[in-house]
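Holo prediction. Input below; ligand is PXG.
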Amino acid sequence: MPDTMDDTTPALAQLLSAEELKAHWMPFTGNRQFKRDPRLMVAGRGAYYTTADGRRVFDGLSGLWTCGLGHGREEITAAVSKQMAELDYSPGFQYGHPLSFKLAHKVVQLTPPGLEHVFFTDSGSESIDTALKMARGYWRSKGKPGKAKFIGRVKGYHGVNYGGVGVGGIGFNRKLFGQSVDADHIPHTVLPENSFSRGMPDNGAHLANELEELVLLHDASNIAAVVVEPLSGTAGVLPPPKGYLNRLREICDKYDLLLIFDEVITGFGRMGSLTGAEEFGVTPDIMTMAKQITNGTQPLGAVVTRPMIYEAFIDQGGPDYMVEFPHGYTYSAHPVACAAGLAALDLLVKEELPQRVKALSGKFEAAVHSLKGSPFVTDIRNYGFAAGLSLEHYPGEPLRRPFELGVKCFEKGFYVRWGADTIQLAPPFITTEAEIDSLVNGVGEALHELARSIG
Ligand code: PXG
Ligand code: PLP
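Structure of the complex:
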């Protein structure tokens, strides 16, 4: 284990006792390793964190793909403080407050034409489960209750709630929990001939035809919806092959399947457009969003739908005092989260940050691909301000090298994500060209140091 905490352990002991460290069962974390050698952030400003041992660390993943505007944005802090003082909570069922309607309207304006109604949740996982319920309810309201199966994609990540795990395609996330919803999966789009592709790979549109194979297998009368991320984030940044998403859309139209885009990572700027749908030119029937909607400052998710979905529930709603969609969370459209969302989206638009990502994405692409030939690097993929590097496995231990590399990067002042056999970079939209170079150089040095340390 790295011994970097040795000289800082007294500072850590002042901050947290062993009992306190033990009490928190951390999410998606190696709890044993972490508690032996904690990595703690205590402050954030712009594109940098400050760690408990007083170091400045570049935020190479924008939090968890959340904080593209950078940290400590005063406009968001002011909006949240004002809202807390004015109306800290208001019931979301049968009563409302003005901000949720303003935010819903804003989201409709920022998503592609055709998506017109917004349902609020508290997270990406809740957004996905909401979208799946909308899809099944839609078909039931149309008199087609058999249309209940979902088609996800291998390597897809759709959060951790039961529906999302069932349509998700990451084996590690599924194996302890069993199959939760009726789902099948189309193949992922990683092909050896696409190694080191820049942006959208040339090969692989034909893999969308696998959807048609599954439709022929299960029959369209049994399938509710197809759920994919336009670009898979968590699995290691997998951009869609050219033509692939268009083909999925065609097949969904041909067989009357709903198409759900999970834009929890791709939504609100990271692709260099407001959404992946806009960037890749394909509009789904339902879009799920979260993370960047509040710049990560408050938990908030959104599900954006075509009118036909909303109207199907309204039309079957019975007397007008009846609830049309028996679904919602205590914190759906929380006023403080809505205040944060309005402020964050205002900044995103006013500062033209998607445009900035687009303008700098060529620079980012060239920088990350300069790591080709560095020790252990077997593939590099990128789009917008997102990149994934696949790393050569230790025999029988695919997850170990990315962990070692991530910790080494952190020691060197760069926070990056490790997951599966990859590391991932997703810098804030405000990142400068010099910071892109320094992040990529930091990762390159860490790779070389890792190679030297194991001889
Ligand atoms: N869908 C997609 C496409 C996601 O990326 C979720 C749903 C779930 O969102 P919530 O808010 O419930 O976590 C996500 C979230 C990572 C990482 O390190 C990625 C996510 C979450 C946490 C970490 O790649 N994606
Ligand atoms: N469990 C119980 C016992 C509840 O009363 C509620 C909400 O009222 C929930 C779960 C759901 O909580 P949430 O609305 O925050 O998702």
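The first helix runs from residue 9 to 15. That is the main takeaway for now.
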